[in-house]
Amino acid sequence: QVQLQESGGGSVQAGGSVRLSCVPSGNTDSRYCMGWSRQAPGKKREGVARLDSDGYTAYAESVKGRFTISQDTATKTLYLQMNSLKPEDTAMYYCGYSDGYCTLIDNNPFWRYRGRGTQVTVSS
């Protein structure tokens, strides 16, 4: 079992920045995929950014150049720096984890474990 605890969400004006954190605990593997997904009301969940234990990173087109995923490799704490936020970035953001390589389903990462989420609200 792996537990994920997100923090850092909040309300911000368009153009502002927010940094999300995700602290994993439990039985994490040496080879893994971690990342962030989001879901806005009435919309499907979408992958935002992911990285794997080899350091490979990938981003959704809608956030490229604005969001940066990173990790403290010692603790596996995951971060998402979100800059130049737009109202359409408003969503519940979830941290996800899976053992092994990243797996995509319908172009979105599959998470074996997911946190409870943290809300990000961007006002215009």
How are the SSEs placed, and which strands pair?
Layout (H helix, E strand, L loop, with lengths): L1 E6 L2 E4 L4 E9 L5 E8 L6 E7 L4 E3 L7 E6 L4 E6 L8 E9 L4 E2 L2 E2 L3 E2 L3 E6 L1
Parallel strand pairs: 2-13
Antiparallel strand pairs: 1-3, 3-8, 4-5, 4-9, 5-6, 7-8, 9-12, 9-13, 10-11
Element-level helix/strand string: EEEEEEEEEEEEE
How many distinct helices? Answer: 0
Rg calc: 13 Å
Q: Segments where pLDDT lies below 50 for 5+ residues?
A: none
Can you give the mean pLDDT?
96
User: What general outline do the C-alpha atoms trace?
Assistant: globular
Distance between the termini: 40 Å
Structural class: mainly beta
User: Major sheet, described briefly?
Assistant: 7 strands, mixed
Strand content: over 45%
User: Would you report the number of β strands?
Assistant: 13
Helix content: under 10%
Descriptive overview:
With 124 residues, the chain is mainly beta. 0% of the residues lie in helices and 56% in strands. It has strands at residues 2-7, 10-13, 18-26, 32-39, 46-52, 57-59, 67-72, 77-82, 91-99, 104-105, 108-109, 113-114, 118-123. Strands 2, 4, 5, 6, 9, 12 and 13 form a 7-stranded mixed beta sheet that branches. The protein has a 4-stranded antiparallel beta sheet with strand order 1-3-8-7, with no helix packed on it. The protein is globular. The N and C termini lie far apart (40 Å).
